[in-house]
Amino acid sequence: MAAALGALLLTAAPAHADTDIKDHPAPALAPGVAIATFNSDSTAADACTAGWLVHTGDGQAGVLTAGHCFHGGGAAFATSSRTVEGIGRFIEHEHSGSRGEDSDIALLGIGNFPSAKQLPTDTRIIGIRPVVAPADPGHLSQGQTLCHFGQASGLQCGPVTRVTGTKVEFAAPADTGDSGGPVYYRDSDGTARPVGIAIRGDNTGTVAELIRPWLTRWNLAVDTTTANAATAVGQQTGR
Question: Residues of the signal sequence (predicted)?
């Protein structure tokens, strides 16, 4: 593994990536779906990936993504018909840098703006893999396989190489646009157990922000997949 990975120095995906999300349509907003973020003047800013769907303590729906994806405006995704729909406004965002233990996570609200449409959502990763309760970071260990799903790289998995108090590194490649995507390990029954969100990487590995500390800090609950997991994509709304 490259020394840069061991030192948590993998580079953040640059802004001004391919923000034409019409090339990445999805039937519902779900973990792993491509999103575009905007500047405060509504011009396109960045291409990122939706992370875990969550709810705040007062019931506001949201989705986690990387903090460096915030540029002052909101975010959108493209439906299956390639219609671009606004997701919402950012509620929280932390980006203290792109090295070491620097924080890099954001909470994007869903439908928290005037005239917002009710968007189809799906708790499953790209509408396929069911999601269960988040992992305890204390159970992560070197060699354990983690996966991430990003709009650029798709599904990538690899062994854990380092765990810190706020980050986990694993040897799975990442590319521009993957930032914010779900990082998880697969339980024996095939379900996904949330670990973090991808925040930076290269062709040798990925660094993820652990979500457990932020769930506590922001009083959030991850939306998990309900028992009727065979329901069509876009209809899963259970917590």
Answer: 1-17
pLDDT tens string 162-216: 999 999 999 999 999 999 999 999 999 999 999 999 999 999 999 999 999 999 9
Locus of tokens 């354990």: 144
Phi first, then psi, for residue 192 (nearest 5°) are -100, 130
CATH number at residue 147: 2.40.10.10
Q: Is residue 80 part of a domain?
A: no
Residue 183 in domain: yes
Cβ neighbours of residue 14 under 8 Å, at least 6 residues apart? Answer: 176
Contact present, 125 and 51 (Cβ < 8 Å): no
The three-state (H, E, C) secondary structure of 72-123, written as one string: EEEEEEECCCCCEEEEECEEEEEECCCCCCCCEEEEEECCCCCCCCCCCECC
Q: Is residue 177 part of a domain?
A: yes
Domains: count for the chain: 1
